[in-house]
Amino acid sequence: MPLADLVRPNAVIPALKAASKYQTIKQLAARAAGLLGLHAPAVFNTLMRTERRGSTGIGNGIAIPHGEIAKLDRLFGLFARLERPVDFGALDGEPVDLIFLLLAPEAAGVDHLKALARIARLLRDPHVAARLRESGDAAVLFAVLTIPQSEAA
């Protein structure tokens, strides 16, 4: 599943200002809700429910907050590059500056898991992560995220 199927150019935030994990997730939930026509507190609560089970910070400055929303009809992704890293309670203890939010329909099942794996694989690639950290331009970030994986390295 290419990331171009998940994220659109208007779902890329090149310089999100947030001072904490809570504030980051709240802002991302509001942006996602606006793009999807959903109620922001419902999206926020879904993301926080997942976060309470364990941090979605996967290490190397990357987090993938995610959750399932009944009203969705497709997988939805939103990418944000933080202006300043925030403590996300990541596995390696490092602060997070690259975030890919993933929302899935409740019935997505294995597609949700495949999307999470695809996102993690891409963002953990050191070359891709470096390119995402180097640019503050939404169009460039979108291009890096959606380039076919065989060309990403």
Topology:
Blueprint: E1 12-16, H1 21-36, H2 40-53, E2 57-59, E3 62-63, E4 66-69, E5 76-86, E6 96-105, H3 110-124, H4 126-134, H5 138-146, H6 149-152
Parallel strand pairs: 1-5, 3-6, 4-6
Antiparallel strand pairs: 2-3, 5-6
Verbal overview:
The protein is an alpha/beta fold and about 150 residues long. The chain has a single domain (about 5-150), classed as Mannitol-specific EII, Chain A (3-Layer(aba) Sandwich). About 45% of the residues lie in helices and about 25% in strands. It has helices spanning about 20-35, 40-55, 110-125, 125-135, 140-145, 150, and strands at about 10-15, 55-60, 60-65, 65-70, 75-85, 95-105. Strands 1, 2, 3, 4, 5 and 6 form a six-stranded mixed β-sheet that branches. β2 and β3 form a beta hairpin. α1 (about 20-35) packs across α2. The longest helix is centred in the N-terminal third of the chain and has 16 residues, at about 20-35. It is globular, with a radius of gyration of 14 Å. It starts with 11 loop residues before the first strand and ends with a helix.
